[in-house]
Write a structure and sequence with these properties.
seven-stranded antiparallel β-sheet; alpha+beta
């Protein structure tokens, strides 16, 4: 689970959002009752800012003050009063809810603890405010700010950083708020990584140096007796690591940071860790949970040291063995394994229950197989003799709510069994009425097309009786009605709810993949009316945007393309003229030179602007340099977004668009470079039973955005055809010898997988359906994916928007991670509408149009190999 999605799920029960966007009660607002007249007060995002007449430098030593949520109402006014008494500008989180949200278990760790920030103008004012706050807040509980130099005995810390934030784009094209460069111009990264408090400072003041040395001495005394430490995962609550203990055995370290990682019950990470230790100690010697080795307090954290349980999690067994998700997997063997796992987990739970312990978070990731038995881990949610301290940290499917009885564990085990049969059973957390259908389809998948499987067993559907049935495809008109329910033209940041990727760039709510632009052009391309108010919103907000990043996916180039396709030529012309001249940091389709070249080439025709052809060819030249370089650029991930497949697709489409404008041989060179891009993409592909799946080292993926599907689109555009007669093979493709036909066939076999976690166009079932429609429109997988896409729809009548006039005839679509809904093209309803046409050929044309893909060749042609220099003349 991506912690960004969990962090943005707290704001709204239906959509991902920033917590500070949610209206709050006046009683929840923090701050002093009275502010001096000389101070200018304003709200900026989650912050309330108090600006004094003192002129701030561009960068300096900022002071952070932390406090626990229950003390925010007391601490914030005190600190603001002290800062204003020194005539220093400061800011604080506006509400108690924001303080709690930034210190929740899944909050971004780099921001946790930053409740108040004070901006001293020089070293004397830094020394004075630190001294005053150290005395004022002595003994006050608060989380340590990981990036900062801490003050001992008070929740106060300092860090060198930006006072006047400037927009900064890194080497991979990712944007962030940086600081003014060391020479007083340009930008530099504003480092917020752990222990980075003094980085970037030309001179470290004596006060800060003394605090740093004292902190280093304290941290040095808090070292655990371990070596070979490896990170398993981190969160705002702490982390989990494996290590070698002082006696040579492998152990697991579970870290709990003090005064942060709060859950819905208000318990912090340390409270839950100590409770977990009590549960483990009660179960010592049973063999069904890890043995406790030690419990250490070290620095600002506590560590529970446990034996390392060697063995795979049940999640791993499902991911590597489920025949609907793994090509060539043995269905009968997997079904037998499921029965065995459920039986063994039930036996382990019986031991817990006999000792007065309920687990309360039974799911495949918390069950480890060892020597024919299972070991249950992660007992922070457990109840001892009916008493639990955690609330809201278990997964949606495994959570028992307030039920602390053994019966709740057994119900969770039944759900786990159903999940192992059909991984999409997780959708019942939002669609409980699908329980029987999902279980029935899962059993049918395990039986295989000939109906021969491993029947019976320990798994029982926790819902209605098993009744295999044919899923109902999503209704596009209900999804369009859902867009009208979700739209909020009064907001300036977004018209429609999106994935969290839309929050990660300025203007993300406007763009192609995660903004209003992509939704509106999808409506237009599928023959549906585009509301005038929505079109007006996109024009006005695009032209008013103070800064936009370059790029096709979520940047200015993609927004301009959307405007032009909607007929808003002047707005598109203004936008591309305002933002088109910036350099690209990468070659990728999403935010690099390939995608931007594609956008400019499309815009040249739509706006009748020949100068944009020259701009496109200039960007193409940068792209070709990257394609032909021996050293790949950073950030490569196979797929449309940041992979060579996306680059190749962009080059082919540009070749189609600029053929009559470019110099002789340019189109041939672009096609040759696209063929080279295909071969480079093949290097990131692994084959299993003939299915080609992209890998990033940890996972294998068939998806369009990140995965192997885009390789199939590229190979088809280069003339490849699906050739079912090619024998399946586990041999990795040879990039130097692969043919487009082999690539299309291998990718199509990957797209046949029946189990797909999400719905979205980029990373889910809609993208697999779109790809099949283009490269193999007669394939039965087209029907299978269209029908199963209906599982991810959520009736508006079952949401908090149920009172809307359109609720009875409207659906939403679950977005990334399936815990909140999304409307955007990349992850939400618009992507499902795009692939909803029952006329597969027409649907393929629409997909090609919306994503600006090249035409799929109708006959196999020789891929040109000659290289002709690209010129920007026309």
């Amino acid at each position: 689970m991506d912690p960004r999605h969990l962090a943005h799920a707290d704001a709204d029960p239906d959509f991902y959002d920033d917590v500070w966007q949610v209206p709050c009660d006046a009683a929840d607002v923090l701050g002093p009752a009275v502010v001096p007249e000389r101070v200018e007060v304003s709200d900026q995002g989650p912050w309330r800012v108090y600006r004094t007449p003192c002129i701030l430098p561009d960068s300096g030593w900022k002071v952070h003050v932390s406090c626990v949520p229950s003390r925010a109402e007391h601490v914030v006014p005190l600190v603001v009063a002290e800062a204003l008494a020194e005539d220093l500008t400061c800011k604080h989180l506006r509400t108690r809810r924001l303080v709690a949200a930034t210190q929740a278990k899944y909050a971004e760790p780099s921001g946790a603890g930053k409740v108040v920030t004070v901006y001293p103008v020089d070293e004397p004012s830094l020394a004075r405010i630190v001294a005053r706050l150290t005395v004022l807040l002595a003994g006050e509980p608060g989380a340590r700010v990981l990036s900062d130099v801490p003050v001992d005995g008070a929740p106060v810390s300092v860090r060198f950083g930006a006072f006047r934030g400037v927009r900064h784009v890194d080497a991979q094209g990712r944007w962030g708020i940086g600081r003014v460069g060391d020479a007083g111009t340009g930008s530099a990264a504003d480092d917020r990584s752990p222990h980075s408090g003094c980085r970037g400072a030309a001179v470290v003041p004596a006060l800060v140096a003394a605090l740093r040395d004292a902190a280093s001495a304290r941290d040095g005394d808090a070292v655990l007796p371990v070596t070979d430490v490896r990170v398993v995962h981190r969160s705002n609550a702490g982390g989990v690591y494996t290590a070698t203990w002082e006696d040579g055995r492998r152990v697991v370290l579970k870290e709990a940071r003090r005064h942060t990682g709060f859950d819905l019950a208000g318990s912090d990470a340390v409270t839950r860790l100590r409770h977990e230790r009590s549960a483990l100690e009660r179960l010592a010697g049973t063999g069904v949970v890890p043995e406790v080795v030690a419990h250490h307090a070290a620095g600002d954290s506590e560590f529970l040291v446990m034996e390392h349980v060697a063995g795979p999690t049940v999640t791993s067994g499902m991911a590597t063995g489920h025949p609907a998700a793994v090509p060539g997997a043995d269905a009968a063997a997997y079904r037998s394994w499921v029965d065995s796992v459920v039986t063994r987990t039930g036996e382990a739970l019986a031991v817990l229950h006999a000792h007065g312990v309920s687990h309360r978070d039974v799911h495949p990731g918390n069950v480890i197989e060892r020597d024919g038995r299972v070991v249950l881990v992660d007992l922070e949610s457990s109840a001892l003799d009916g008493v639990a301290v955690a609330k809201g940290v278990a997964t949606a499917l495994s959570s028992t709510g307030d039920d602390v009885t053994p019966a709740a564990d057994l119900a969770a085990l039944a759900r786990m069994g159903a999940l192992l049969v059909n991984p999409q059973y997780a959708l019942t957390a939002r669609r409980p009425e699908l329980a029987a259908e999902l279980t029935g389809v899962g059993e049918a998948d395990l039986a295989g097309p000939d109906g021969v499987g491993h029947g019976g067993g320990a798994v029982a559907d926790p819902g209605a009786p098993v009744a295999p049935c044919r899923p109902t495809p999503p209704c596009p008109e209900r999804l369009v009605a859902g867009l009208h329910v979700a739209a909020d033209p009064a907001r300036h940041d977004r018209l429609l709810p999106s994935d969290v990727a839309g929050f990660s760039v300025p203007g993300g709510g406007l763009g192609l993949l995660h903004g209003a632009g992509g939704v509106l052009i999808t409506l237009a391309a599928t023959g549906r009316p585009v509301p005038a108010a929505w079109r007006r919103w996109l024009v006005e907000r695009s032209l008013a945007a103070p800064w936009l990043v370059p790029g096709l996916a979520d940047g200015a180039d993609g927004i301009a393309l959307c405007l032009a396709r909607l007929g808003e030529r002047e707005a598109a012309r203004t936008l591309v003229g305002r933002w088109a001249d910036r350099e690209s940091a990468s070659p990728w389709w999403s935010r690099g030179s390939a995608g931007r070249a594609l956008a400019h080439a499309e815009l040249a025709g739509l706006l009748d602007e020949p100068a944009l052809v020259a701009s496109a060819l200039g960007l193409v030249a940068d792209t070709l340099e990257a394609v032909e370089a021996d050293v790949p650029p950073p950030g490569a991930r196979a797929g449309l977004l940041d992979g060579w497949a996306g680059v190749g697709l962009a080059l082919l489409r540009v070749a189609e668009l600029v053929d009559r404008h470019a110099g002789d041989g340019v189109s041939a060179r672009l096609r040759a470079a696209a063929a080279l891009a295909m071969r480079r993409e093949c290097a990131a592909v692994r084959a299993r039973a003939g299915a080609w799946l992209a890998t990033d080292g940890n996972r294998v993926m068939p998806y369009l955005g990140t995965g192997s599907a885009a390789l199939g689109l590229l190979a088809a555009a280069l003339g490849g055809r699906h050739e079912p007669g090619i024998p399946p093979s586990d041999s990795a493709p040879d990039p130097a010898a692969v043919t487009p036909g082999e690539a299309v066939t291998g990718v199509v076999r990957a797209l046949e997988l029946r189990s797909v976690a999400g719905a979205g166009l980029l990373h889910g079932r809609a993208g697999l359906l779109a790809t099949l429609a283009v490269v193999a429109p007669d394939h039965p997988g087209v029907t299978l994916h269209r029908e199963r896409l209906g599982w991810y729809t959520v009736p508006v009548s079952a949401t908090s928007r149920r009172e809307h006039p359109l609720a009875g005839d409207a659906d939403l679509l679950l977005g990334e991670q399936n815990i909140r809904c999304s409307a955007d093209l990349g992850s939400g309803s618009a992507g499902a509408v795009l692939v909803s046409d029952e006329d597969v050929v027409r649907m393929a044309r629409t997909v090609t149009q919306v994503l600006a893909l090249p035409e799929v060749a109708r006959s196999v042609t020789r891929v040109p190999t000659g290289m002709t220099p690209v010129t920007t003349s026309h």
